[in-house]
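> example.struct
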């Protein structure tokens, strides 16, 4: 019972500090949160929490602020996330449902996350290596020019032109289309590439070889796997007092996509949220920031990661709810593609 009461005190301190950015005192806690105990009991609980390293006294005032350890306990003990309002749900669906292609989905997602959380939003483009091949189309643009289109589960579309030495007939084109789809459709990229190479080896036909070589090259192009979209940097202006410790290093990190990818971490399956607080992150110079992230992709296949980065003093329940909701909508859109 005492442990639960102290957890309630910690929860109240976190909520008040996030809302006010002011150290929280025992009198304010009793007045605002109806804890059902006297200020003296709350002071004792605060002393115990401070001794255990969950809160700290930043200066000589009577107020306390949460530590990284306190935020971690607060997040780990969350029983429910803050529900999205009807207006927020409508905003998510109306914005994302209007997306026309993968680039548009990513750009809309990062803008939406930044608006919902008032933090810096980061969305990784789906990685090629995790994708599967949905369909391959081979179209004749001219007698000796083909357009090869590979449509992937991530929503990504790879298009390449193939120039031929001699014209190709409709029947040969239909056979070629059937061959490449039988060899690659439904397979992850590595297996699709192996299947295409195996199919092309015995063919001995220059047209087939040219198309398969082009497809293999397109599917082996991992340059975009480290692409991320970033939005909401202006939201950092809200954290004026902590600019040097938290905001300045984060602004510098926004220029380095490799750093952002490492901050987000590996994509997880099943919509699992990852919350890394302060010193739990991979970069010491960003130890005043927290990251809330999750994987996204069709049918629980995590093709990439999205999330937010911001100072540790953040609304964790609301942020976690927003990240999860946007990831689910994006996953649904990719699954319908």
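> example.seq
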């Amino acid at each position: 019972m005492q442990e639960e009461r102290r957890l309630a005190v910690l929860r109240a301190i976190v909520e008040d500090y996030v809302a006010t950015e002011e150290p929280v005192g025992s009198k304010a806690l009793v007045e605002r949160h109806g804890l059902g105990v006297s200020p003296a009991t709350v002071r004792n609980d605060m002393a115990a929490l401070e001794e255990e390293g969950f809160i700290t006294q930043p200066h000589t005032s009577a107020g306390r602020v949460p530590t990284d350890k306190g935020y971690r306990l607060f997040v780990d003990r969350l029983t429910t996330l803050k529900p999205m309002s009807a207006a927020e749900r409508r905003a998510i669906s109306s914005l994302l449902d209007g997306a026309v292609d993968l680039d548009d989905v990513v750009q809309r997602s990062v803008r939406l996350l930044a608006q919902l959380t008032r933090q810096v939003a980061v969305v990784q483009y789906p990685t090629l290596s995790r994708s599967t091949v949905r369909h391959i189309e081979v179209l004749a643009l001219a007698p000796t020019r083909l357009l090869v289109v590979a449509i992937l589960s991530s929503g990504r579309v790879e298009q390449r032109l193939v120039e031929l030495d001699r014209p190709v007939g409709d029947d040969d084109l239909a056979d070629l289309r059937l061959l490449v789809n039988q060899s690659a459709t439904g397979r992850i990229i590595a297996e699709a590439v192996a299947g295409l190479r195996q199919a092309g080896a015995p063919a001995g036909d220059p047209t087939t070889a040219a198309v398969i070589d082009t497809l293999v090259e397109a599917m082996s192009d991992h340059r975009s796997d480290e692409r991320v979209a970033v939005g909401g940097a202006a939201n950092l202006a809200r954290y004026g007092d902590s600019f040097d410790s938290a905001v300045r290093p984060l602004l510098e990190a926004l220029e380095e996509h490799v750093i952002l990818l490492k901050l987000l971490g590996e994509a997880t399956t099943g919509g699992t949220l990852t919350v890394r607080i302060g010193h739990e992150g991979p970069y010491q110079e960003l130890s005043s920031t927290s990251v809330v992230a999750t994987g996204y992709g069709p049918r629980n296949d995590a093709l990439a990661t999205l999330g937010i980065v911001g100072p540790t003093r953040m609304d964790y329940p609301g942020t976690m709810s927003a990240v999860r909701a946007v990831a689910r909508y994006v996953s649904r859109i990719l699954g319908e593609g």
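> remarks
The CA atoms of residues 201 and 209 lie 8 Å apart.
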